[in-house]
Design goal:
Largest sheet of chain A: 6 strands, mixed
Strand content of chain B: 15-25%
Number of helices of chain B: 6
Shape of chain B: globular
Helix content of chain A: 40-55%
Strand order of the largest sheet of chain A: 2-3-1-4-5-6
Low-confidence stretches of chain B: 88-104
Mean pLDDT of chain A: 86
Mean pLDDT of chain B: 82
Number of strands of chain A: 13
Number of helices of chain A: 11
Oligomer: heterodimer
Number of strands of chain B: 5
Distance between the termini of chain B: 9 Å
Strand content of chain A: 15-25%
Largest sheet of chain B: 5 strands, parallel
């Protein structure tokens, strides 16, 4: 039997003693756990007191009222978040508002319980929180053991993989029911869309493989003096058919000594991502300029386009996994949302940096700097 | 009031899924307005009062569906709202609305998993529209 330390933070003594009473002889167990949990309750009447207790002893679960006499619950939550304590927070509140809920969930509250609650409700919630905490710790343990399980990543990934499957499955069902009659031609759009979604999924899987290679470090890197302009030219050739369709002109300029001790495949990934974005997010009749410049201790790669650009807010997010800027202008553009995060990881492998400057409707410029070894 | 006059607003940022749900709901005999995201849905709600709305959860933001539901509820307190999402299985969140606690802050009448069978969806819509 393991004991979870529950800190109840509420200015009403009645609520606190209620929690103590309800959890006194309560235990939870799950099929996937070796041992059951029981609970020890510690009380705090104010946020300030709660923080003192949090700093002085290990706590597993915090039941947190939002309306406290001094600092309020959300502030306590923010503090817990900042300190990165390994615990789960459940808000208990009679003032549940969506705004509060969203702020609290953003700050890592696990869930909410409205006041007044019944013993049954509290037990059910505690059971969930305990399970959540257990899984969270399990995950961390796995990570510590070197099993690179990234929960967040995997959950978004499953969303990204499920969406195209849902779409294709939906179309197939409509065809199965012959919703548009017996003529196969009536289904042309559905078939095209299904194929497009499957293609998107395949690209996502290809990107994932790139990512896995980077993450696992398994791939043998072959470092040799590599002519970067040649690699850039290759990436431009790959995008040529698409650029012709959009009548986008591409130029390549190199200045000084542009060889770098690098793995050619990895450089290819960098240029492919930069050039394909510059073409994909460009306007018809636009321009893509690739510059590779020797700057002595480092090499500068700059890819600028005259495309749709993006807001300042968007530029701060685009290097995260699966982030895609969704608006009217990007609606028709497909992508896995992994390209730039792969690019960033790749550049960081070379101790380099990547930054972006962009203006909506004017275009974007990506600048990569890689130090010479 | 017959189905033909009932207007249903559907918001989803997956164009294919949006089209499929639109076809499905039209096949039940309802009128449909679609929005490809939170912002577009908000615009429609400014000028139009649908009889019922179906919102996807994750659109521009992770909680777009909740925000839409909240705003829609403030403007049209009596309009039933369904949140349809594939999120539960993915995030480990379970926002079932039978839990009184969630009812308090998720301003929706029903939380559905995507991939629901047409007959189930039809039944739920009729129940909410009291048809």
């Amino acid at each position: 039997m393991a004991t979870l330390q529950v800190l109840v933070v509420d200015d009403e003594p009645g609520i606190r003693s209620g929690v103590v009473r309800i959890l006194q002889n309560f235990t939870v167990g799950y099929p996937f756990m070796d041992e059951d949990f029981d609970f020890a309750v510690i009380e705090a009447g104010t946020g300030e007191q709660a923080i003192e207790l949090l700093n002085s002893r290990p706590i597993d679960v915090v039941l947190l009222d939002n309306k406290l006499p001094g600092m309020d619950g959300i502030e306590v939550l923010e503090y817990i978040n900042k300190q990165k304590y390994d615990l789960a927070v459940m808000m208990i509140t009679s003032y549940a508002s969506l705004d509060l809920a969203i702020r609290a969930t953003k700050n890592g509250a696990y869930n909410f319980m409205p006041k007044p609650f019944t013993p049954q409700e509290l037990r059910a919630s505690i059971e969930n929180v305990a399970k959540h905490l257990f899984l969270k710790r399990m995950t961390r343990k796995m990570q510590a053991e070197g099993k690179q399980i990234r929960f967040q990543f995997l959950s978004v990934l499953s969303h990204e993989l499920k969406s195209p499957l849902n779409a294709v499955e939906g179309y197939l069902k409509m065809m199965q029911e012959k919703q548009l009659g017996d003529n196969i031609d009536s289904y042309a759009t559905m078939i095209d869309r299904s194929l497009a979604r499957l293609k998107g999924m395949r690209n996502l899987i290809m990107d994932l493989l790139d990512l896995t290679r980077i993450e696992s470090g398994k791939k043998e890197r072959r470092l040799r003096e590599t002519e970067l302009p040649a690699i850039a030219r290759q990436a431009m050739d790959t995008m040529e058919p698409y650029a012709i369709q959009k009548n986008v002109k591409m130029t390549l300029q190199s200045k000084g000594n542009t060889t770098l001790l690098a793995d050619a495949d990895e450089m290819e990934i960098i240029f492919n991502n930069l050039v394909s974005n510059a073409v994909k997010y460009n306007k018809d009749n636009g321009q893509v300029n690739v510059l590779i410049e020797d700057q002595g201790k480092e090499i500068l790669i700059r890819v600028s386009d005259t495309g749709i650009g993006m807001s300042k807010e968007d530029t701060q997010k685009i290097f995260e996994d699966f982030v895609r800027i969704k608006n009217q202008k990007t609606k028709e553009i497909t992508g896995s949302g992994l390209g730039l995060s792969i690019l960033k990881r790749m550049v960081e492998q070379y101790n380099g940096t990547i930054e972006v400057e962009s203006e909506p409707d004017v275009g974007s410029t990506f600048t990569v700097r890689i130090p010479r070894q | 009031m017959s189905n033909e006059n009932k207007l249903i607003l559907i918001a989803d940022d997956d164009a294919d899924y949006l089209y499929q749900i639109e076809m499905m709901v039209k096949s039940f005999g309802f009128r449909v307005k679609t929005a490809e995201g939170q912002a577009e849905a908000e615009k429609i709600l400014e000028t139009t009062k649908p009889d019922l709305a179906i919102f996807d959860l994750m659109m521009e933001q992770e909680d777009s569906g909740f925000i839409l539901a909240y705003k829609a509820r403030r403007k049209y307190p009596d309009m039933p709202i369904i949140i349809a999402s594939a999120a539960t299985a993915e995030t480990g969140y379970s926002f079932d609305l039978y839990d009184e606690g969630n009812k308090g802050w998720i301003k929706a009448d029903l939380y559905l998993e995507k991939g629901i069978r047409p007959d189930q969806l039809h039944r739920e819509i009729n129940k909410l529209l009291k048809i």
